[in-house]
Amino acid sequence: MQAFVTGAAGFVGSHITERLLREGWEVVGVDAFTDYYARAQKEANLQSVLEHPSFRFLEADLLDLDLSALLSGVDVVFHQAAQAGVRASWGQSFEVYTRLNVLATQRLLEAAKDASLQKFVYASSSSVYGDAETFPTPETARPQPVSPYGVTKLAAEHLCYLYWRNYGVPTVSLRYFTVYGPRQRPDMAFHIFIRALLCDQPISVFGDGRQTRDFTFIDDAVAANLLAATRGPAGSVFNIGGGSRVSLLEVLATLMTLTGREAPVRFREAQRGDARHTAADITQALAVLGYRPQVPLEEGLAREVAWLREFLAQGEGSGGGH
C-alpha cells in the first residue's frame, strides 16, 4: 500500500507516517515547513523516518506541486497539512488560512478526482462546532464555528463532501478533539503548561480555567486515521475524541503532580474564538470504524511530559534549523 501524507513533519502527520512505515506501507510525505512554529521541532519530528527505505520526503508547498503526478499509484491520502491555531487566524492572517487550509485542499481534491484512490482522509477539527448546543456533540449537530480557523476547516470539509458527491473522491473527514502527546505543537496548552513547569516559569491561563475539552491522545488519533482508511464509508464524517473531558484546572493539577513541580497561575482574558466547552460523541466512530480510544488522560500526559523533558534536554531538536 502507498500513502501520501501532507503535513508529514507536523505533530499528527509525523506520527501517522511512523505508524504507516511500521506497518509496511510506502509513504510519500510533503511539508512546507511554514513558520507557524520552529522548524527545528518539525525536523526533529521526522528524524526517525528520514532514512527509512520506504519513505520519500518532499519539502514543498502543496500549491506548487504537480499533485496529479504525485498521486499516481497512491492508495490513500492522509491530508493533515493546515495552518493551525484558533487565536492567530483573525485579521490579515486569515488570508494565510484560506490559502493553506481551503485552497490547498481544493487543489489536492482536484488532483484526487483523477486518481485511483481507495480513500482520502481529511483532518478536520472540533472547531467546526464552535460553542456547540449539546454535549457530548454528535456529528449531526449544526456546525457554527466561532473562529476564522474553524471556518476554514469547515470549508475544506465541505469541499471533501462535494468532491465525493460530484466526482466520487472517497473522502472521510475526521473531526479531531484536542489532540495531545509527544511532539505536540508548542502553541498548544499542554505543551505550554509542561514547558512552564519544567522551566520554573509562571503559567498563563486564558479565561477562568474552568473551560473543558475532550482530549485525544496522539496514538488514538493515528489509529482513527488508519481505521478511516480501511473502514470509513466515502463521504462520511466522524468525531474523534479521547473520552476524557476535563477542565484546564484539572489538567494543571495533574501536570503538577506528574512533574513534581508547582508554578504560579496567572489568569488572563479569554481569547476570541476559543470555545467554552468541547465533548465528542464518538458513537458513530465506534459503530462504523470500531474506534475505541485506548490511552487515558493521565497516562497520555505522562508520556508528553517525558517527551518534553527529553526534547528540552536535547536543546529543542538540536542539529535542526538553529
Any key phrases for this structure?
single chain, 322 residues, alpha/beta, 7-stranded parallel beta sheet, two-stranded parallel sheet, 10 helices, globular
Output the radius of gyration.
Answer: 19 Å
- Number of extended strands: 13
Model regions low in confidence, pLDDT < 50 over at least 5 residues: none
Strand content: 15-25%
Query: What percent of residues adopt helix (DSSP H or I)?
Result: 25-40%
Question: What is the global morphology?
Answer: globular
Q: Which structural class should the secondary elements be placed in?
A: alpha/beta
Largest sheet: 7 strands, parallel
Query: What is the terminal-to-terminal distance?
Result: 36 Å
Strand order of the largest sheet: 3-2-1-4-5-6-11
User: What's the tally of helices?
Assistant: 10
> What is the typical, i.e. mean, pLDDT?
95
Order of H and E elements: EHEHEHEHEHEEHEEEHEEHEHH
Structural summary, described in words:
- The protein has 322 residues and is α/β, with parallel strands linked by helices.
- 38% of the residues lie in helices and 17% in strands.
- It is built from ten helices and 13 strands.
- The chain has a seven-stranded parallel sheet with strand order 3-2-1-4-5-6-11, sandwiched between helices. Strands 7-10 form a two-stranded parallel ribbon.
- Helix 5 (148-167) links the parallel strand 5 and strand 6.
- The chain is globular and about 55 Å long.
- The two termini are 36 Å apart.
Would you kindly provide a brief summary of this structure?
By secondary structure, the chain is an alpha/beta fold. It has ten helices and 13 strands.
